[in-house]
Design a protein that fits this description.
It contains two helices and no strands. The chain has one domain (4-93). With 108 residues, the protein is mostly helical. 0% of the residues are buried. Helices cover 81% and strands 0% of the residues. It has helices spanning 4-79, 82-93. One of its GO terms (biological process) is cell division. InterPro entries: DivIC, FtsL/DivIC. This is Septum formation initiator. The chain crosses the membrane at residues 23-42.
Length: 108
Amino acid sequence: MGSKGPQKPRKNRLISKRRQKRALWICLVFAIILLFLGFQLFSAKSQLHRVNADISEKKVEVKKQNQQQKKLKQRQQLLNNDDYVKDLAHSKYGYVKKGETTYHFVNK
Protein backbone atom coordinates (compact mmCIF):
# COMPACT_ATOMS: atom_id res chain seq x y z
CA MET A 1 0.00 0.00 0.00
CA GLY A 2 2.88 2.30 0.54
CA SER A 3 3.89 2.10 -3.09
CA LYS A 4 0.48 3.30 -4.32
CA GLY A 5 0.59 6.52 -2.34
CA PRO A 6 3.62 8.11 -4.07
CA GLN A 7 2.35 7.14 -7.52
CA LYS A 8 -0.80 9.25 -7.25
CA PRO A 9 1.03 12.58 -7.05
CA ARG A 10 3.09 11.60 -10.11
CA LYS A 11 -0.08 10.74 -11.96
CA ASN A 12 -1.57 14.08 -10.96
CA ARG A 13 1.57 15.86 -12.14
CA LEU A 14 1.35 14.08 -15.49
CA ILE A 15 -2.30 14.96 -15.82
CA SER A 16 -1.53 18.53 -14.85
CA LYS A 17 1.25 18.79 -17.45
CA ARG A 18 -1.00 17.24 -20.09
CA ARG A 19 -3.72 19.73 -19.23
CA GLN A 20 -1.25 22.59 -19.47
CA LYS A 21 -0.06 21.41 -22.89
CA ARG A 22 -3.63 20.94 -24.07
CA ALA A 23 -4.59 24.39 -22.77
CA LEU A 24 -1.54 25.88 -24.50
CA TRP A 25 -2.50 24.23 -27.81
CA ILE A 26 -6.09 25.40 -27.47
CA CYS A 27 -4.91 28.95 -26.79
CA LEU A 28 -2.53 28.78 -29.74
CA VAL A 29 -5.27 27.57 -32.10
CA PHE A 30 -7.62 30.24 -30.76
CA ALA A 31 -4.96 32.94 -31.30
CA ILE A 32 -4.38 31.76 -34.87
CA ILE A 33 -8.12 31.84 -35.56
CA LEU A 34 -8.34 35.36 -34.11
CA LEU A 35 -5.42 36.52 -36.26
CA PHE A 36 -7.04 35.04 -39.36
CA LEU A 37 -10.39 36.67 -38.61
CA GLY A 38 -8.67 39.99 -37.88
CA PHE A 39 -6.87 39.83 -41.20
CA GLN A 40 -10.14 39.04 -42.98
CA LEU A 41 -11.84 42.00 -41.30
CA PHE A 42 -8.98 44.35 -42.21
CA SER A 43 -8.96 43.25 -45.85
CA ALA A 44 -12.76 43.56 -46.08
CA LYS A 45 -12.62 47.10 -44.68
CA SER A 46 -9.89 48.15 -47.11
CA GLN A 47 -11.82 46.63 -50.01
CA LEU A 48 -14.97 48.47 -48.90
CA HIS A 49 -13.01 51.72 -48.77
CA ARG A 50 -11.72 51.17 -52.33
CA VAL A 51 -15.22 50.40 -53.60
CA ASN A 52 -16.65 53.53 -51.95
CA ALA A 53 -13.87 55.62 -53.52
CA ASP A 54 -14.66 54.11 -56.92
CA ILE A 55 -18.36 54.86 -56.44
CA SER A 56 -17.60 58.51 -55.59
CA GLU A 57 -15.35 58.78 -58.63
CA LYS A 58 -18.01 57.29 -60.90
CA LYS A 59 -20.66 59.65 -59.51
CA VAL A 60 -18.50 62.63 -60.43
CA GLU A 61 -17.95 61.13 -63.88
CA VAL A 62 -21.70 60.58 -64.37
CA LYS A 63 -22.38 64.17 -63.32
CA LYS A 64 -19.91 65.46 -65.91
CA GLN A 65 -21.43 63.23 -68.57
CA ASN A 66 -24.92 64.52 -67.74
CA GLN A 67 -23.72 68.11 -68.06
CA GLN A 68 -22.11 67.32 -71.40
CA GLN A 69 -25.30 65.62 -72.55
CA LYS A 70 -27.32 68.75 -71.64
CA LYS A 71 -24.93 70.92 -73.63
CA LEU A 72 -25.17 68.61 -76.63
CA LYS A 73 -28.97 68.61 -76.51
CA GLN A 74 -28.97 72.42 -76.41
CA ARG A 75 -26.55 72.47 -79.34
CA GLN A 76 -28.78 70.04 -81.24
CA GLN A 77 -31.81 72.27 -80.68
CA LEU A 78 -29.84 75.27 -81.94
CA LEU A 79 -28.71 73.37 -85.03
CA ASN A 80 -32.34 72.57 -85.82
CA ASN A 81 -33.01 76.34 -85.98
CA ASP A 82 -32.40 77.58 -89.56
CA ASP A 83 -31.54 81.15 -88.51
CA TYR A 84 -28.84 79.92 -86.12
CA VAL A 85 -27.34 77.68 -88.83
CA LYS A 86 -27.25 80.60 -91.27
CA ASP A 87 -25.57 82.87 -88.69
CA LEU A 88 -23.09 80.14 -87.82
CA ALA A 89 -22.21 79.50 -91.45
CA HIS A 90 -21.84 83.23 -92.06
CA SER A 91 -19.67 83.97 -89.00
CA LYS A 92 -17.60 80.81 -88.70
CA TYR A 93 -17.16 79.69 -92.30
CA GLY A 94 -17.52 83.00 -94.15
CA TYR A 95 -20.58 81.82 -96.07
CA VAL A 96 -22.10 84.54 -98.22
CA LYS A 97 -25.45 84.58 -99.99
CA LYS A 98 -25.70 85.42 -103.65
CA GLY A 99 -25.42 89.13 -104.16
CA GLU A 100 -23.88 89.81 -100.73
CA THR A 101 -20.58 91.58 -100.40
CA THR A 102 -18.27 90.83 -97.51
CA TYR A 103 -15.85 93.27 -96.01
CA HIS A 104 -12.91 92.23 -93.86
CA PHE A 105 -11.41 94.89 -91.63
CA VAL A 106 -7.78 94.62 -90.65
CA ASN A 107 -6.72 96.02 -87.30
CA LYS A 108 -3.39 97.84 -87.26
